[in-house]
Every structure is written in C-alpha cells, then in structure tokens.
Automatic annotation (TrEMBL):
Coiled-coil region(s): none
Species: Desulfocurvibacter africanus subsp. africanus str. Walvis Bay
PROSITE patterns per UniProt: CN_HYDROLASE
Domain CN hydrolase: 3-237
SUPFAM superfamilies: Carbon-nitrogen hydrolase
InterPro entries, A to Z: C-N_Hydrolase (IPR003010), C-N_Hydrolase_sf (IPR036526), Omega-amidase_YafV (IPR052737)
Protein name (database record): Nitrilase/cyanide hydratase and apolipoprotein N-acyltransferase
GO molecular function, a single term: 2-oxoglutaramate amidase activity
Keyword entries, A-Z: Acyltransferase, Lipoprotein, Transferase
Domain of life, source organism: Bacteria
Gene3D superfamilies registered for this protein in UniProt: Carbon-nitrogen hydrolase
Length: 261
C-alpha cells in the first residue's frame, strides 16, 4: 500500500493567513497524504506573548481542520496551548477521519539553553499513537529527539512513522540528521522530520527537513528554502523489513541495576 508523506518547511509565521501558500501547494499533490509542519511554526519561541500565540493557534487549527476535511489531506504540527500549569508545546494531528484535532503529546524535555524551560510546562500525560489509514503514528518534538526513550516507549505500540517537528538551528544540523537516522534505525520505523528555515530567536534555521527509512536511509531530504516536499512510500516494504528481524520484541535488559549493583 502506498502512502504520501510530506513536510511543509516554513519560516516562523506571524499569522495563520500566512499558511495559505503552503496549503495551496499541498492541494496540488497528486494524492492525499500526511503533511508535517515544523515546531511552533506559528509565532516560534516568542514565549513572552504565549497567550497571544495560543489564541492564534486556535485560529490556525480551525483553518487547518477545514482544509483537511475539504481536501482529504492529514496535517500535523505543534502549537502553544494553555494548560493547568501554564503553557505547553503540543503536537496535534488533523485529518478528515477525526471529528476534532487530536493531541498526541506535549513536549517533555524543554530546551535549557532558551527561555522555553522557564516559560513553558513540560508534558506529563500519556502519549497517543493514533492510526491513520493503516499507519501507526508516534511523535517526538525537537529536543525530545535527544532522548531515545521517548521513541522507544512508543515502539512497543508498533509505530510506523515518528513525526518530528523541530526548530533545530544550523549550528547543530549534523546532530539533527544523525539523531533522526538513529531513531529510525533503532526503532525500525520511518522518521518524518519538519524543520523551520530562516531567522529565528534560536539562531538561523537551516530547513533540511527529511524522511528517513527504517534502515536509516534517507528517503527525502530538503534544502534550506521554504516550500512543501513529499514522497510516496510503500508501507508493505516497511512492514516486511520489520518481519525480517525485530528490535521491538527483544527482552529489555535492566542495565541500570547491573551498573549500580
């Protein structure tokens, strides 16, 4: 079974209306698919105005929901939202099969070298791994990518594709590529990563969004310019590779207790 996976590689946008050129480009795709936007693509890390961007996020979610229902495309990305403890950076999925936007999880590890750790609340709830047209989805937001257990606990649910929205700066681009390939290889799954491009409070964003296959191979890689990019993948090939041997069913060794014993 073929499935289209794509990214909307954007700079930090200042209003939901700036999504329109990207949505128009998506609508020209030959077949419906799943498209990932970068981390906090609306407003970025302007966290001193979190309430403003949380309000804008609701407008953007409504716009994206309408587009999804009208075109059959599924969309995902992270948005600021108010929580009991303040504000969180949360990954949402929108698709025609869903009555409303579905929250996968809120970012767990907040980047200590920015004001994110001071102004946002880390996620603590259960992670949702929904199925979309036969594809099991997982999530891993930017800095969470450096913590392999975030993806590993989801692998037990037979995740096929990890969605990795990011604002990963150019200075550490090599880390981003390496970590995406590692998470794909160790979990025998695909990693669809959407990174911002252009200037940002966190530094210059290089784009370089990608799709990585379950053997760590690059299936799609992008340049540093705004735009939409997609490719069609064969899910049967992915599942056949998982049957060859599985790292998901191996016993979990309690390494920590052995080291500390």
């Amino acid at each position: 079974m073929d499935f289209r996976l794509g990214v909307c590689q954007t700079p930090v946008l200042s209003a939901p209306k700036e999504l329109q050129p990207y949505l128009e480009a998506i609508s020209r795709a030959e077949t419906p698919g799943l498209w990932l936007f970068p981390e906090l693509f609306l407003g970025g890390f302007d966290l001193q105005r979190s309430q403003h961007w949380a309000d804008q996020a609701q407008e953007a979610l409504a716009l994206l929901s309408d587009f999804s229902r009208a075109t059959g495309h599924a969309l995902a990305g992270t948005f600021l939202e108010r929580s009991a403890g303040g504000f969180q950076n949360s990954l949402y999925l929108l698709s025609p099969e869903l009555a409303e936007p579905l929250k996968l999880y809120s970012k767990i590890h907040l980047f200590p070298a920015s004001n994110e750790a001071k102004l946002l609340t880390p996620g603590a709830g259960a992670m949702v791994t929904p199925e979309l047209r036969g594809l099991r989805l997982g999530g891993c937001i930017c800095f969470d990518l450096r913590f392999p257990e975030v993806c590993r606990v989801q692998a037990a649910r037979d995740v096929h594709v990890y969605l990795v929205p990011a604002q990963w700066p150019k200075a550490r681009l090599d880390h981003f590529t390496l970590l995406c390939r590692a998470r794909a290889l160790e979990n025998q799954a695909m990693v669809l990563a959407a990174n911002c491009c252009g200037p940002s409070p966190l530094g210059e964003m290089p784009g370089a969004s990608m799709l990585v296959g379950p053997w760590g191979q690059m299936l799609m890689d992008c340049d540093d310019q705004p735009g939409v990019h997609s490719t069609v993948v064969d899910l049967d090939v992915l599942k056949a590779g998982q049957r060859l041997f599985s790292t998901r069913t191996s016993p979990v060794l309690d390494v920590t207790s052995r080291i500390l014993a």
